[in-house]
Amino acid sequence: MGKRTAEKASAGSEKGLFADAQSLKQSSLRCGTRFVGAAEEPRQVAGSSPSDNARSLKQSSLRCGTRFVGAAEGAWSGRMRRLAALCIAAVLVFSLSGLGGCSAGEQSSSAASSDAAAAVGSESSAFEDVAAAFDVSALDLDYSKRDLDASYDEASATRIALSGSSASVDGSGAVVDGSTVTISSGGTYIISGELSSGQIVVDASDDAKVQLVLAGATIHNENGPAIYAKSADKCFVTLADGTQNSLSDGTEYTLEDDSDELYATLFCCCDFTINGTGALNVTANYRHGICSKDDLVVTGGILNVTAVEDCLRGRDCVKIADGSFSLVAGGDGIKSNKDAKATQGFVSITGGAFSIDAGDDAVQAKTYIGITGGTFSVTSADDAFHSDLQMAIAGGEFTVSAGDDAFHAETELAVDGGIIDVTSCCEGFEAEKVYVNGGDTSIVASDDTVNSSAADLSDSSDESEGANDNGAPGERGITVNGETPGKGGLAAGGSPADGGSFPGGDQGGSSGQVPQGSAQGQGEGQAQNGTPQGKAAQGDALRGEQGGMQGEGGPSQEAGSQGDAPQGGAPQDAGNQGGAPGAGSSDCLIRINGGTLVLDSAGDAIDSNGSVEITGGTVLVNGPSSDGDGAFDYDSEANVSGGTVLMIGSSRMAQSFLSGTQPFLCTANVSGNAGDTVAIADANGNVIASITATKQFGMVLASSPKFTEGGEYTLVIGGVLTNADAHGYTDSGTVTGGSSTSVTASTTPSSSVGDMESGPGAVGVAR
Q: Is the pTM of this model over 0.85?
């Protein structure tokens, strides 16, 4: 058979924008019975009031007709407009049929649930279908006894002694041909010595289990993988206690004609496990370090991997129970890329010590990242942790410096525990739905610290099965003006992360109204078609990346323009750069139920393109000093029913809560500088909550279980605190000195809060 030389593929493969057909399909699905993931209970049109149905119908038709993507995305082709019109018509028929009762909706719900259940274990050509079928509980997160057992019988094992360009075999099941050692039978093989230019090949039957014990082995192959498990049921590499082992390859591979699947220094076509206590050093000069086309499992050992592209890669999944990892990757540190099956494409880590320096993402998965333990020191040029669907952090210790997001999941991110210290990033937590249920988190971000934005489930992802099996390196795509093309596209819900339920179900932000007319403003104070148009807030794809939008039924004054304040709203010049109310997505939600969040942002600190709910925990925010961003930013609803909240930031974009069962207070008529303490004290001088400012600020938003309805409190800026931690926080100390202002807590906004064209909950500023 002929040979050819494979050169390293370019790492610049592009992630395209949404495929029109898939986008339309996604839209019609959501417009039919639900706008959430398959694992959630469907929200049906028939179950709502007539007024809600009317708004839902209008919202659905808008999503079908405009693809419900960010304002910066271009217009559809004429063909797609015609298809969209057909979609709208179908939605109208379906939705109106549900107004008279629930039977039709129930039938559709039942059929959808049945289809989703059947799809969990099947393969699909569309990632949106995988997303709809995804269920965390269906994932195989366990380890077999043999995965965890690194023992072996030396007496019965075959020994392979490497020597220069050849080797010798003592026992059965292996033969030597020149510099190639081929293992053809199941069993245990102890490998030692040095092979300067050769290869270990496992070519056994499909039911064979092969254990390779590396006991001081050094293997270099200039033309391909150092170890190539071509065929077996399962292959184990056991790192013998106290040994150093090394694998390396060249910069080009010599491949059989019509074969280009070999792309890693240690490459396995079957399920693959690494265990033991020894060390394995891998230098991948061609592409990836350690790769399995099926499962990659690590339960022990010391792994030092340097790779041109990815270090650890399991197509079906990566599961790590323990071990010590030093990973230096030109691409991703740890990756699973199977995108055609809802039960695969995940990364699960339950323990281990990780040092990751990645030129792309540190950890990336198609469907799910689950971390319950381990220590992580991560530096990444792109996201530190990225999942194309869901992510759950339930434990572990993290020190993260990311070039883009620290923790990014498209549909859902749940933080249930762990100690997280993000020293630098663009955005800290980002997903369509962000749930913080526990943990101790500190985030410093150059943009938003916690962001909820619509999910992008386009099929034009980096790692389709076909592309990667054919050797094309994976990149999640180019960026345009700092954003990934297609970002801000169609949203998808899903089920809670493994290990808990999300309180209250999917309640976020359902009150947003559909904007009328064009979503594009013409700049601050200018008019278009006789209607004043305001300047949009920066950074929110859904509410004004290209201009301000006015909510249906909202005031007729200029949104965000300078001048007189609307009647009943905030004073003059409040939030003059704000987006319009009612422009958010009901699928976007930030819900904080517990834990501690210490956030420091240059952009919006807590930013939801839908709703925000705070039910517990401690939230301390140093928001931006710039007028174009705010410490608290949402598009639909924001309520507080528990927890301690203290936010400071710029005044021009200040927003308060819209409602809550726990009193809150907000003022944008203060002034402070970096280094100033900010404290809320009761009548006896006891501090209820406090923080030390890291930058200039002009607003304060606070809520506490200690607040009473209509209670009077003192806001003290620049005082001396007792019993405060490193962030200046205490809820049991005292404050002396400083400048004092009387403030009132209530469960409803004051007359200077809300009903503003600049956005819901906008706070009035006296200037």
A: no
